[in-house]
């Protein structure tokens, strides 16, 4: 309406408001905005540092929300108890259980959600909007994981983690060093270290040895590797899948393609076998250990007063001699106060109190060991007393052992290997070259090992006092099931940051890989105490110590040789979980399952 029209009607004329732009640095007085609301003005002028931080994608709440958006959409569409609820139902009530632990299921479903979102829904949503295939895949995975959990309970994890896998690592390091020495030998007929290694440890998936001079060998080796992955996954599915799903060849082929190509192919074969990636993983683990040790030191120092933190224990209790007048004449030093009473002592008194301190620490450590050994009798035995309680691994081992009985012992022959005799210790000694750097220490350790295993009391033999104590300690601090969710969350945050595929990692150049290796060596040297590093490397120069550590990391240089180790570890774990694959082929297992269905 115009101004004349408003005058005729008798209404006052109101000018239209003018828009004014004000900067946040000059708000109106009184803290009120244009509307007179102080909260609006406070929100408009809130500094950036007071804003809420972005939510953590690895937290349980964010993980549950991500799983619902990816896997539980069908529940909302169908109205299965989700619509109209103020608080959504827990994940364990919406999706089928994967294991007996809800915390483990949450992390496993988060990893499955990332895989399905990135590798399945990207092409499946273009074909049809339904979720039937995704639901079938989830049901199959849930059935397989529950079956694997039941089989995992029968596996000797101590032997697998402490003996069998370190045995493969020890064989890998020995073959690598032998192949490199043989290739460097000028009078050798074989000058390729890959050929020497593959001859010592042949693998059908890695044959023939790929060489740039023969391009056909590269193609043939990749085809053999692809066939090996398919056979491995098809064999596992032939044992774990339900019979109804096993008959569906299309569904079985899709599931096998996901695990064989996306997980084993892209994840393990193409990435996990690269030397620079393994060095980065070792560096991250070492950095975590360094941060943990620093936190312990800070906590121990924070309990002391500030004035006492700079003093040693002997100085705090007045057991060191008072500094002389000549020493106090230096600038920046204050003379002692009259009320400070320090006992005057010679270097002999200082040595005496140091001996007392270390003797006290040794007695305290001995006391803890005695208490642990005394309570070890209440721990369950590790030996197998009957055939009914044997695991498939132990039963397969004993079938190849001759039936013999020790004349001086009535213990059954079906005993597990003592923990002090497992391959973990010999593998560690080989990795650091203990027999070459410190042969006297290697001989002393061998003598102590013989004493605890075959000496008086046999405290280190199977079911001995030391053996039970070590077994209990390892199960509490290493093989604790409570660490599984933490490990899965760490793996997911590393592989899939923010629940998505990270940007493709650019393969580092030769110089960049060398820097990654050097950083890994420096971090590992930092884990060692200064005196131990100086004694072990026989030098105080940190650069020389890092160079020696880089030589120890050379066994991870070649990705092709790393595949031998990684593939053998994968096969070992699969055979321990599915021992049927070590006895029969994939075709025989499929025919047996299908014949049971027909029968």
TrEMBL record:
Residues 101-290 form the PXA domain. It is found in: Cytoplasm. Signal peptide: none annotated. Its main location: cytoplasm. It comes from the Eukaryota. GO terms for cellular component: early endosome; late endosome. Residues 1-61, 381-409 are annotated as: Disordered. GO terms for biological process: early endosome to late endosome transport. Pfam families: PXA. Keywords: Cytoplasm. Transmembrane segments: none annotated. GO terms for molecular function: phosphatidylinositol binding. This is PXA domain-domain-containing protein. It comes from Clohesyomyces aquaticus.
